[in-house]
Amino acid sequence: MLDFLARVGRVFLSFLAAAGRLALFALRALSHCLRPPFYLRLVGRQMIDIGYYSLPVVGLTALFTGVVLALQTNTGFSRFSAEGAVATVVVLSVTRELGPVIASLMVAGRIGAAMAAEIGTMRVTDQIDALSTLSTNPFKYLVVPRLVAGTIAVPALVLVADIIGVFGGFLVATYKLGFNPAGYLGQTADYLRSDDVISGLIKAAVFGFIIALMGCYHGYHSRGGAEGVGTATTYAVVSASILILLFDSALTSVLF
Length: 256
Prior knowledge:
This protein is mostly helical. Helices cover 86% and strands 0% of the residues. The chain has nine helices and no strands.
């Protein structure tokens, strides 16, 4: 019994130590975000990598999410003769919840892994130490541009995903389910409020920061050559995905 409690205690203490290291890393990165020099060119390049190059996969995911949501909602509501609420459910679900979460998970799988792999490779090949030797702060040069770009680019992606997701629901509702196009759009506009979109964008900004933070953190602390880089990449994606779902629950309870 004592051995079991000791193992549980060691796991719990390891978790607290890891959480503390992550918190200190985030605070250090945020402090550098407020102090010059600012590498705006690197921020712009990261925004292109995160936003522009992620647009195809996010757009396709949002489109099919809207299609499936409209089909499933119509199937469920038809049992209660409430098919008229399909447009409302689709637009609110996409803008409040599915758009930010699904787009962020896709970005985490694509960008979080890339960040961890790139920074992890620089760590195991001593390129980060070389930056320090050249009087370049690794946090300012590697971490801060990615955090800023992630916080800005992911909300922009989510805004596009919201539009595409609602459009996917509109397509399947009008061409397959027999809804009147004007009536569907009118109901969508009547029930959609700016607060629904803004709350989703707030979530997206938090998720973008989490994705960049986990990618940079695990890449920055990777060890052990190619195997260590692979492990850091896996941890970055898994931890970012878990934190996205965790913070989604917390933000939903706060915003709504």
